[in-house]
Amino acid sequence: MRKTKFILLVIVFFSMIHNSVFSQNCTGNQVTISLQNFVIPSGNNAIEFDVYVKNTGTTILKLGSFAGNIVYNANLLPAGATGSFSVITQPSETGNFPNFNNLSINHSALSRYLRWNHVTMSEALAVNLPPNVDMKFARFRFTSSISFLPNTLLSLNFVSNLTSAFTGLNVYCNSNPIHTFIRLSLGNLVQISTQVYICNASSSITTLGLKLFVEGYVNGESQMISGKSNQGVSYVDDITVELKDASTLQTVASATSKLYTDGFATFNFPTTVNGNYYLAVKGSNSIQTFSSSVVTVTPNAPLVYDFTTNATKAFGSNTKQISSGVWAFISGDNNNDGNIDNADYSVWESDANEFASGTFITDLNGDGNVDNADYSIWETNSNNFVSLLSPTP
């Protein structure tokens, strides 16, 4: 009986979403959401931030509710720590959303999400979203029982992946009393590129924070699956970055770190490294990718480079667009020779003929099996003659 009730509830829930999405003609109902004004209070065990909402479409909109789901990276909750999520400034206290009181909030350390919600209000009580006005919605705080590790990269991302709930808004337009549900996955709710914050810089190391996606592992707009899950760990891949001298392209320093499912990896270099360098980044089965231009590495000055926001962030635009406004490293270089070709096919074929399962570099989509799904990724990129593109000394 309980199972029957659950199934009925699921059917009702998805029926409600279906009816909301198609309940009215709301052309141009685009809204942008962003995280702003990050602050880490003294003690380095908490992070505060504002959430902003902006009507960037062409239709008059009224906000009826806002359900937010943010996934944070592993650095935000050190091993052995517990975390708590709270509202510092309720929407009604910002002066912008007078009828929005007492957000319902939740935190899951297992899924690394921070979540809030509010009961949808009627069209009469909804709040106007005037075009092109950035409106502060609320301010939040996340607190860890243990201070953040020195010189680490902290990140938070809105997500719409159903496996980790949703980010969405209920809006009214054109004086229609029936709300429309908009969400990131529908393309009419847009997230401003991820905000990052590097905390508590050490005097003995220089930190480089990278954000990148690997094509085959991408599962959703801003998440990847764990290519290492068969080893009982939750990260995607081991990524190596080399600092290449801007004039000679000789490797001056290199470091290896874990790439997490949100696309972030943090690398530490000795403070003796000082100058202008290209970043050359390599994973286990993706084409080595260079930064499009040199970056300046200064001792003790944290640096962040994001490959995901545009093809032009990679030298020769040698990445692949995987969704609107998101680019990823290209998968299929199984033998790490800088070309996706028949030599990589031979490596895949050998593993596929053995029905290989577990963690293999030929498992291009990270599902734990070497099979035709991985072959399809290789074939597409091989047919496009994908190879390493690098600057010349």
Strand content: 35-45%
- What would you call the shape? globular
Helix content: 10-25%
Q: Give the averaged pLDDT, no decimals.
A: 85
Spans where pLDDT lies below 50 across 5 or more residues = 1-24
- Give a short account of the largest sheet: 8 strands, antiparallel
Overall number of strands: 23
Number of helices: 3
Order of helices and strands: HEEEEEEEEEEEEEEEEEEEEEEEHH
* Helix vs. strand class: mainly beta
Radius of gyration over C-alpha positions, nearest whole angstrom: 23 Å
Structural overview:
This protein has 393 residues and is mainly β. The N and C termini lie far apart (71 Å). It is built from three helices and 23 strands. The chain has helices spanning 2-21, 342-353, 372-383; strands spanning 31-39, 46-55, 61-72, 83-89, 104-108, 113-117, 127-129, 134-144, 152-158, 168-173, 180-183, 189-191, 195-199, 205-211, 237-245, 251-259, 264-270, 275-282, 289-290, 295-297, 303-306, 320-323, 326-328. The strands form five sheets. Strands 3, 5, 6, 7, 9, 10, 11 and 13 form an eight-stranded antiparallel sheet that branches. Residues 1-24 have low confidence and may be disordered. The chain is globular, with a radius of gyration of 23 Å. Helix 2 (342-353) runs antiparallel to helix 3 (372-383). 11% of the residues lie in helices and 36% in strands.
Short structural summary:
With 393 residues, the chain is mainly beta. The protein is built from three helices and 23 strands. Strands 3, 5, 6, 7, 9, 10, 11 and 13 form an eight-stranded antiparallel beta sheet that branches.
